[in-house]
Amino acid sequence: MAAIFFDVDGTLVRWSGGYGEIIADAFDRAEVTPADDWLAHYNERFFHHFGEFADDPYHRAFTDLCDEYPVDADPRELADALVAAEFDAVEPVPGVERAVEKLAEDHTLGILTNGIPGVQFGKVEEVGLLDYFDARVASHDPDVEATKPDRDIFEAAKARVDTETYVMVGDDREPDVEGARAHGFETVHVDASIADLRTPDFRTLATLL
Length: 209
Ligand SMILES: [Mg+2]
Hints:
Layout: E1 2-6, E2 13-15, H1 19-29, H2 36-51, H3 57-68, H4 75-89, E3 90-92, H5 96-106, E4 108-113, H6 117-126, E5 133-138, H7 151-160, E6 165-170, H8 173-182, E7 186-189, H9 202-208
Parallel strand pairs: 1-4, 1-6, 4-5, 6-7
Antiparallel strand pairs: 2-3
The protein binds magnesium ion.
């Protein structure tokens, strides 16, 4: 038995459109028409708070936006609208459902993701896969506060499952592949963005493990 950890964005789930469309949808839900410079300011503030491991960077970034610009909406409403828009826009990466189901027969599956626990696990729940993952590790869990490729998040993952073999499956080379390898994981690199590849080769993965 191995412990197989999956990244979330670009590995288990992907957006049906671009992130710009999702933010636009969030403003739409709050009945606000954003000016051109609002999105850049929101993004800059989001990554600032995210980098500081704030518990709710969405809410904080919208609060900053509403302080800076005449936004006729409540930051809480905007933050909730954005998370709801993210949930509505996720779809499973093609091929992943069968692979996860098959791998779960013989292995312990986990999530190992950079992001807010409720949002990251919520996206996996949206596509109906969350129950397969017994070990759930997110960078912005107060007990973790480390992002891939840092050592501490990989150690937090290992601490959740007692086994000999740890595997990381992910789409981003530096955090998911290089980071995981440096901290004792076998790695599988998947790329859901290649247009002419219908599915990442999850089937091969499920056969090999
Ligand atoms: Mg990813």
